[in-house]
């Protein structure tokens, strides 16, 4: 993530004592060491391998950008991830809003229901969709028993089943991020709008909603990046047409043992993700998601 | 008592159990194996010596349970060597450890084209026949020289008996491809090797002219069936789900999983053994070069290939033993459901993995592109 965790609401003090600078640095050391050894170093090795494995050349990258397979998989990945993100945001927003305005017991109850599916294993959740959406699944049986349809609907092994399962997996996270962002909105502003004669809807539309947008953008980015890497869901619920990049990388690495190619594909995915995050940050300032200043 | 005598005695005991439990299904068999062996061991080996453990690298789930029951527990009880089980088996991991010169695996069941790769990369230790009893093995189990073959699986056509209750049912790959004669929802595996072999059989290529594979012909044949495939499965459990929930009418899947669904979960399907795409004994247990406990691993290899352990393994997971003597210990009703049962083997199509060892990456990429477009 490119966002810099900056709680810099206070203006920088020029005369800060050296001790005040050393302590945060020391506290960051274990984290930095961990990240360097378990993330940056392997990443560097992977980068090196993507060139070295093909006789120190860009051959692996040429394949990535010229092979129709990779172009197609990459497009499918970005398309699927974008649609899933937008749906997740639309569904999560009202829930997060209700969470913000309700208190105590009701909030705890809603949060519990949001979290329960989050605690269930992804594979279990994915298999449950197979049981629900199949020709002999619950939904089709119900539809046929009530006479709404006569032949089972094609609910599985297409982009519909992939998206519905992805959204279900992404939803708890989206709700929590949005809820966190909305909590930081100063609710007295809405009260002020109402005092000035705005109705509830108008207060929401002209005050709360615009203020919540930075949170929506930030949540959108996090959820999008997460959905780029989906593997189990498209593999089990999609048809080969819904293949996403993580599946292709997995095949290169574990079946074809072409680690140079897999490394190159992984790196390109990382670069694309970072680029998207950087552009996003330029326009929507990710800092706001972490409670930083809106300046 | 010498180590060899102990193994012989263990095998004699296992033979008795196999005979006594002949008609039992899998669940009851597991119970009796566990009970009898445990009691017997307590009586005969009161203090197993503390030796270095061996690390066995295998598949997860049912496979792991079967391997530990059939090979692992008897091995530990006889030799006093504990087993650390690593899962899931992935040749890529083995290769990575080999290249990093940090082999942590003492023995692994390598299969198909991987065996050729392992051979080329000099990853395999020669077998130690002072530990492994060659006379207990069938020559076919030693076809690779440095591996002990244990089991074989097949990619088989299965059809729903509700759709085709009589004699007129799909009985070949040509029938699987024939959507007019046998209409129904179909499923194939998203794996190039099995599906490519099936496509050529469906197109009527004779076994004698099969290799080198005519790649263009493969894709012409695949083009014909593609619009009629309801789903392409990638995971073995998914294939079982499709069968058990009757989401498809004809499915091609691995025989052990099919039998588990049919026998143990009562899926109304029937296996077609004609033209089963068979691994043909290409699997074998190896001891990788540079492993921590090669001697312990050789002792393990002395157990895996024996008729007794192979029979036990087949009863637990329904893959075919490579040691034909195992069939003397298996109930005929179950024997008929195994890929190496003589009648099944005779009508099967054997995969030549030496061709695949050279052509897998190119075929895989072309197949994936075809599949996704």
The N- to C-terminal Cα distance of chain A equals 20 Å
* Mean pLDDT reading of chain A: 87
Number of domains of chain B: 2
Number of helices of chain A: 12
The percent range for strand residues of chain A is under 5%
CATH level-3 fold name of the largest domain in chain A = MetI-like fold
Biggest protein-protein interface? A-B, 29 and 27 residues
Considering the protein shown, what is the CATH homologous superfamily of the largest domain in chain A? MetI-like
Question: Topology of this protein?
Answer:
The complex is a heterodimer of chains A (295) and B (373).
Chain A: H1 18-52, H2 59-66, H3 68-101, H4 104-119, H5 122-133, H6 138-145, H7 159-183, H8 188-195, H9 200-228, H10 232-237, H11 245-255, H12 259-284
Chain B: H1 3-20, H2 26-44, E1 54-57, H3 61-79, E2 83-86, H4 91-99, E3 108-110, H5 113-120, E4 151-152, E5 154-160, H6 173-177, E6 186-189, H7 192-202, H8 215-225, E7 229-233, H9 236-244, E8 250-254, H10 255-264, E9 269-278, E10 284-286, H11 294-304, H12 307-317, E11 320-321, H13 332-335, H14 342-346, E12 349-350, H15 353-372
Parallel strand pairs in B: 1-2, 6-7, 6-8, 9-12
Antiparallel strand pairs in B: 3-10, 4-11, 5-8, 5-9
């Amino acid at each position: 993530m490119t966002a810099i965790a900056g709680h810099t609401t206070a203006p920088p003090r020029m005369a800060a004592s050296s001790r005040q600078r050393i302590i945060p640095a020391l506290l960051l050391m274990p984290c930095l060491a961990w990240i360097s050894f378990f993330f940056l170093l392997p990443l560097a090795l992977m980068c090196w391998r993507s060139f070295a494995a093909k006789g120190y050349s860009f051959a692996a990258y040429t394949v990535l950008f010229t092979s129709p397979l990779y172009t197609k998989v990459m497009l499918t990945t970005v398309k699927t991830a974008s649609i899933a993100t937008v749906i997740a945001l639309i569904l999560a927003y009202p829930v997060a809003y209700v969470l913000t305005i309700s208190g105590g017991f009701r909030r705890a109850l809603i949060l519990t229901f949001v979290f329960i599916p989050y605690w269930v294993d992804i594979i279990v959740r994915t298999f449950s969709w197979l049981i629900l959406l199949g020709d002999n699944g619950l939904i089709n049986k119900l539809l046929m028993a009530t006479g709404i349809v006569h032949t089972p609907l094609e609910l599985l092994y297409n982009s519909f089943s992939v998206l519905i399962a992805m959204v279900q997996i992404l939803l708890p996270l989206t709700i929590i991020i949005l809820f966190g962002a909305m909590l930081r909105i100063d609710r007295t502003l809405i009260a002020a709008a109402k005092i000035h004669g705005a109705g509830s809807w108008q207060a929401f539309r002209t005050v709360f909603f615009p203020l919540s947008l930075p949170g929506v953008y930030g949540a959108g980015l996090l959820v999008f990046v997460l959905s780029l890497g989906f593997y189990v869901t498209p593999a089990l619920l999609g048809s080969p047409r819904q293949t996403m990049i993580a599946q292709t990388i997995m095949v290169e690495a574990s079946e074809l043992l072409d680690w140079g190619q897999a490394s190159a594909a992984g790196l390109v995915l990382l670069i694309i993700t970072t680029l998207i995050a950087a552009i996003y940050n330029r326009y929507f300032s990710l800092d706001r998601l972490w409670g930083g200043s809106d300046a | 008592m010498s180590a060899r005598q102990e193994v012989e005695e263990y095998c004699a005991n296992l033979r008795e159990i196999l005979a006594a439990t002949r008609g039992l299904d899998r669940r009851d068999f597991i119970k009796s194996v566990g009970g009898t062996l445990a009691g017997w061991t307590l009586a005969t080996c009161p203090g197993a010596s503390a030796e270095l453990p061996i690390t066995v690298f295998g598949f997860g789930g049912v496979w792991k349970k079967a391997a530990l029951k059939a090979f692992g527990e008897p091995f530990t009880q006889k030799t006093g060597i504990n087993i650390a089980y690593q899962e899931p088996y992935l040749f890529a991991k083995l290769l990575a450890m080999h290249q990093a010169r940090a082999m942590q695996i003492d023995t692994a069941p390598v299969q198909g084209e991987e065996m050729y790769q392992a051979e080329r990369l000099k990853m395999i230790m020669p077998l130690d026949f002072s530990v492994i009893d060659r006379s207990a093995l069938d020559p076919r189990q030693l076809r690779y020289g440095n591996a002990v073959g244990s089991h074989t699986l097949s990619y088989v056509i299965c059809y729903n008996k509700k759709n085709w209750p009589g004699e007129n049912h799909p009985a070949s790959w040509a029938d699987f491809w024939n959507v007019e004669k046998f209409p129904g929802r179909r499923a194939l595996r998203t794996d190039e090797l099995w599906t490519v072999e099936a496509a050529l059989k469906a197109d009527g290529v004779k076994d004698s002219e099969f290799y080198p594979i005519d790649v263009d012909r493969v894709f012409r044949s695949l083009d014909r069936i593609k619009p009629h495939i309801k789903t392409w499965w990638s995971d073995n459990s998914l294939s079982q789900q499709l069968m058990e929930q009757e989401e498809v009418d004809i499915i091609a899947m691995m025989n052990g999983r099919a039998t588990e669904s049919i026998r143990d979960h009562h899926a109304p399907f029937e296996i077609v053994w004609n033209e089963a795409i068979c691994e043909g004994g290409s699997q074998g247990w190896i001891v990788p070069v540079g492993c921590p406990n090669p001697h312990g691993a050789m002792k393990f290899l002395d157990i895996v290939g024996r008729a007794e352990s192979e029979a036990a393994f087949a009863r637990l997971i329904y893959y075919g033993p490579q040691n034909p003597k195992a069939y003397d210990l298996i109930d005929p009703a179950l024997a008929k459901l195994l890929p190496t049962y003589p009648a099944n083997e005779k009508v099967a199509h054997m995969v030549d993995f030496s061709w695949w060892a050279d052509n897998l990456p190119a075929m895989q990429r072309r197949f994936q592109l075809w599949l996704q477009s």
